[in-house]
Specification:
The chain has 96 residues and is an all-alpha fold. The chain has one domain (16-93). Helix content is 47%, strand content 0%. The protein contains four helices and no strands. The protein has helices spanning 16-33, 55-63, 65-71, 74-84.
Length: 96
């Protein structure tokens, strides 16, 4: 696996950066305890807001992400999302 999708409900007093940092720390510690090799987090991340009305659909997508990415790579899907919402990006800074 080369990526994860996570759906968070974020309090107004928490930052996305803090939540990502905690997630990376906790999962890295767990992976080391399990003695799993070849695990690391990339430096960056993508975060997107989701309307409450879309939470169920996003949850279903996450449950099926492994199946979904057999048909379309994560990189291609991420590019499509960035393009769809007209987000300017430079490929040199997107992938580690």
């Amino acid at each position: 696996m080369d990526h994860v999708h996570i759906l968070f409900s974020l309090s107004r007093t928490r930052t996305i950066a803090d939540l990502v940092e905690e997630t990376k720390k906790g999962s890295s510690k767990w992976m080391k305890q399990q003695r799993l090799q070849h695990f690391w987090w990339q430096a960056g991340y993508g975060a997107f807001s989701v309307a409450q009305s879309q939470v169920s659909a996003v949850s279903r997508y996450i449950e099926r992400q492994e199946e979904h990415h057999r048909a379309q790579s994560f990189q291609d899907e991420f590019r499509q999302v960035l393009s769809r919402y007209q987000f300017a990006y430079d490929e040199r800074y997107v992938w580690d």
